[in-house]
Amino acid sequence: MTTRVGVPQAGMTMITRACIYLRNPAGLLWRWGRPGRNRSHLGRWTSQTITGLIIGLVFLALSTFCLAQAAAAAAKETAGEAAALPEGPTDFDTCVRFALRQSPFLTKSSMEIDLKRLDESDSRYGFIPALGFRTTYYVDRPTSQNVKPSPYTLSFTSEAYNPLEAYFSLQVKKLITEFAILSHLQVIANGLLRIGRAFLDLDTLKRVATCQDELISLARQNLNYAEKRLGIGTATSLEVKVAAQELELAISEKERILASQNNLLEGLKSFLGMKPAQDLTLNLEQVQRQVFGQFDPAATTLGQAKARSYDLKTHEIKKQLQAYNITLAKTRVLPNFLFGVTTPDPLSMTTAKGFFFYIGLEVPVWDGFKRIRNISRQKTLLRQIDVETETKESDLSGKWQVSLEDVRGAAASRKVAQAQEELGRLKERQNEIRYKSGGEPLTTFTEARKGYLESQKNNLLKALDYDMAVLSLRHLSGDLSYSYVQADSWQK
To answer: What is the mean pLDDT of residues 63-75?
Structure first.
């Protein structure tokens, strides 16, 4: 492209830029002041003032950003100093609150919120057009005897600016931050479920270990009795071997229980962010009351689960985000604004000095109708999300019914196990009376005692299945996570 005098004009691009200056009567260019020596002092003062304002805005933005970063760093240091390891026997509530402060499994999703808030801050600064500085030196330039322009240009130029796109981009970033918060709360809810299961498992294993100690004692008593009988000739060596093998099996089962306890405890310490060398003593008294609180499986409803479901809430945010994507696709059809200040171009063969302010528009001439098709694409994605919403609600309803059936089935199994334990206790008492009266040998009583202890272990395991089913129902209903964290507490 060339100017009126046929001289190529620098800075022309393939993008159409309509810049309007006051000096041009045709309405193509706006210029603050007139070139040449006769330009008024008012025009010079106005251009210098605008340049100073632009530089001041840049300095103010940089200062605000630095202060914000310093405040964020100080807040993180304060948060890090607040974390402290639990001392003494630790109950479920203390473990949960400690995990919320420093669990490494929750830190990643928490840091994701910080990243999204930084993106949100970037969008807020997007309301102020980005400015850049450019200087150009012309090694080879046109010359004239009467005109000797400066060999260089200085310019402060804005990037393409669309205020509507900046506004809706900020709304999108806010929703993305909310999405990150809900995702973090879902991670917390899963972490609380993990802690609750660990407490229930450890409590049951502790009780089962007590029963196993009694079985070991009973097996050792049987072995001593068999050895005495072998010594007086009323038993065979095979009976002694059987009794010894039963004792070995009982001891091996106790070792397995202890190993399970140790693995669960180490897993809990790892989740809490504790080092392997650190000790963690748990308070397992009335563990069901600690884990369940005031939760009543019969009182909870599917409506509460839907209202508290983080999965449904995040899906609703996806729907809102897609609606904003449609709006953003429409705003990208609009032209972008440009503005800046620059010194005269040496190619224009003018001796004017100083900075000149300009504004203009930038419109892509041809893009293959990609922006138009993108609007249709985003609308199709929104309809797809609407279909997924119905699927999500159906899945939650199905999980809810399965969880309720698990609770009912576990309750029935626990009731049967309780009846078996009571029956085993009665048989033990019956054989004890017969043994003490001389009607039955010691082996009959020990077998009855062993059956009672095995039924007691089975009852503990069935009770654990019921507790796990209730805990899963509490987790699915949202009561567990809502007892400790709220989404509003993460909003700023």
So the answer is: 54
